[in-house]
Amino acid sequence: MTAEQLAGHLRAFQDAADDHDGNRAVGTAGYRASVDHVVERLRAAGYDPRVQAFTVPYDEDHGDYHDDHHDEETVTERRVTYNVLADTPTGDPDSTVLVGAHLDSVPESPGLNDNGSGAAGVLAVAEALAGTDTRNRVRFAWWGAEEVNLNGADHYVSDLRANDPGAFDDIALYLNLDMIGSPNYGRFVYDGDTSGGGWHDDSVEAPAGSEAIEAALEGYFESVEMAVEEVPIDDGSDHLVFAEAGIPVGGLFTGDTGEKTRQQAARYGGEAGEDYDPCYHSACDDLDNVDLQVLEEMSDATAAVVLGFASSTIDDGARLRPPDGWPRRSALEELDPVLTGLVALGVLVAATAAVAVAVRRRARVRR
């Protein structure tokens, strides 16, 4: 994985917005162009992607999408949108490692950091792991309508539970990428064991096993000597759907409207007292709003941890554990030659150790 590879996907998402009224929101041509790019790149990498259609309630009088709990009297129609899914051809489907990111933007924004960055990261990981034999199946997902009350991920989980409960039970864990290229970034890992403090009204209880995902991510960053901090698992992105369904969750994040502290500025660089992403949900969230260095770092971490879980024994019915041999650097290097390359690409020396911090989030506002 390289910054150039990630930038190529971001440029495609920028073009999708530029060519279609400046955004990639649910139900728009800009969103469909984003779907087409993901599908095209997956096919080129040898995958057989599936496009899952679903509908979102739309209020034509106000030009607004709503969640399904909104007053139905204001809903004039239901519009079609899409999730994209792709599986590795090898690996045990009974222990599926699921990694995903939402693909849609808000209507006011091209959404390159929120969440072109996460979508590009998942796509680059899929490309990097194409052709790699794994013990467990890996499923890559791009969710639609995250910005409309997590409709895409909710449809996926609800559909599996209703129509293929065995496949739902096969999901061993879910790893979420949302806003992983913030221009005034911090490196944040979801707090799967609630040890980091800073919990607030929007925090959700992490299912058992979530601590193993946190440990794997923190072990990776320790192995490449990068500082990282924990943030509470809140209700701001697609991981909420999986957490509420009892699936272990984890994820990466580089900040939205919270202000960077002086300690974080010393640790990561950037400007203290300024938002991690000053263009959050705004028209300026374009290609220039993404920090490619941190996007590459977070994507490399994702690839390492996904491959770690995909290459390890996951006991059916047992509490999820960190990948075999984690977090020794030697264990990372033994997993696969692909992973060795990913680790080498990610090395940076951090100045200080990680400390716990609470990142201010907007209640019920989707990243």
Characterization of the model:
With 367 residues, the protein is of the alpha/beta class. It has a single domain (3-345), classed as Aminopeptidase. The chain has helices spanning 3-18, 29-44, 112-129, 151-163, 165-169, 210-223, 239-244, 262-268, 292-310, 329-335, 337-345; strands at residues 50-59, 64-65, 77-87, 92-102, 136-143, 171-177, 188-190, 229-231, 249-253. It starts with a helix and ends in a 22-residue tail after the last helix.
Secondary structure blueprint with pairings:
Blueprint: H1 3-18, H2 29-44, E1 50-59, E2 64-65, E3 77-87, E4 92-102, H3 112-129, E5 136-143, H4 151-163, H5 165-169, E6 171-177, E7 188-190, H6 210-223, E8 229-231, H7 239-244, E9 249-253, H8 262-268, H9 292-310, H10 329-335, H11 337-345
Parallel strand pairs: 4-5, 4-6, 6-9, 7-8
Antiparallel strand pairs: 1-2, 1-3, 3-5, 7-9
Helix pairs in contact: 1-2, 1-3, 3-9, 6-9, 9-11, 10-11
Features:
alpha/beta; Aminopeptidase; nine-stranded mixed beta sheet; 9 strands; 35% helix; disordered C terminus; transmembrane helix; membrane; Peptidase M28 domain-containing protein; Peptidase_M28; metalloexopeptidase activity
Short description:
The chain is α/β, with parallel strands linked by helices. The protein has helices spanning 3-18, 29-44, 112-129, 151-163, 165-169, 210-223, 239-244, 262-268, 292-310, 329-335, 337-345; strands at 50-59, 64-65, 77-87, 92-102, 136-143, 171-177, 188-190, 229-231, 249-253.
User: What is the share of helical residues?
Assistant: 25-40%
How much is the average pLDDT?
86
| Unreliable stretches | 328-332, 339-365
Distance between the termini: 25 Å
Main beta-sheet annotation: 9 strands, mixed
Arrangement of strands in the largest sheet: 2-1-3-5-4-6-9-7-8
Question: CATH H-level name... which superfamily?
Answer: Zn peptidases
